[in-house]
């Protein structure tokens, strides 16, 4: 099932024919904000699912061309991201430790919304197409074997990234170059986990103005979706509605600039697109930027056979540790 919002954040199911408003089915769960409404749907989904399915048989469908789809998790409590997390075609033995970072929940936008490039002057603004998951039930110190049981569903995401500042521009602290408003397009819907056989075997594509740039499979992840969840749950409690981006394969990254239309497609999950606006009208070559992908591949090749600094423990330490 594909769940989301449309119009004035009315809850809906997205079908091949269009949108079905399910407000009548979830009326008692609609809360003070769209995010809380979706969290209530997530928490109660096992009871709602048969009611929604029955309702779909008789409900009217609104054509997609007549509605504005909204982000399916409009303001997640946490947005956690895998830093890199792909082998880029160069497996390293031993495996490198998992690295993650936070991204601002206020960066979220939906299908058809506009990515606004800020006045900050970076070397380049990059697109990073990524598989994202939505947490379905509370997870704290879960094992890797149990981790996927805590996933409610999956969606597409783009981790828009402002790279290092140009000379003379004050640097941004930490990973804040990824957290400008509008720098996290997601959607168009949450595809529930029961429709995704293996999240680590999905094709991911990203095109700009119709020209394909990123084209990879999630099987190239260095740390699986399950490992990512288990590791993060050993640090903090993951809660329904939290969003986790699984990282990207950097081969094929390129710039986003004024007038562009970026489109992400993830196998079995869906297609979403966004326009790009930049008041400064900055320009870069309209092509793949090989610098980041090449640098990461060279770095990984240089790590072959080097000792790992360890990985995060997936079990709670003993009280006497």
General description of the model:
This protein has 321 residues and is α+β, with helices and mostly antiparallel strands. The protein folds into 2 domains: 2-70, no CATH class; 79-302, Fumarylacetoacetase-like, C-terminal domain (Fumarylacetoacetate hydrolase, domain 2, Alpha-Beta Complex), CATH 3.90.850.10. Mean pLDDT is 93; it is low at 312-321. The chain is globular, with a radius of gyration of 20 Å. 14% of the residues lie in helices and 26% in strands. It contains 4 helices and 18 strands. The strands form 3 sheets. Strands 1, 2, 3, 4, 5, 6, 7, 10, 11, 13 and 16 form an 11-stranded mixed β-sheet that branches. The N and C termini lie far apart (45 Å). The longest helix has 13 residues, at 290-302.
What percentage of amino acids are in beta strands? 25-35%
Secondary-structure element string: EEEHHEEEEEEEEEEEEHEEEH
* CATH homologous superfamily designation of the largest domain: Fumarylacetoacetase-like, C-terminal domain
Overall domain count: 2
CATH class of the largest domain: Alpha Beta
CATH architecture of the largest domain: Alpha-Beta Complex
Helix content class: 10-25%
Largest sheet: 11 strands, mixed
**Which shape, going by the Cα principal axes?**
globular
User: Mean of residue pLDDT?
Assistant: 93
By secondary-structure content and strand pairing, the structural class works out as alpha+beta
N-end to C-end Cα span: 45 Å
- List the uncertain runs: 312-321
CA radius of gyration: 20 Å
The total count of strands amounts to 18
User: Could you name the CATH topology of the largest domain?
Assistant: Fumarylacetoacetate hydrolase, domain 2
Number of discrete helical segments? 4
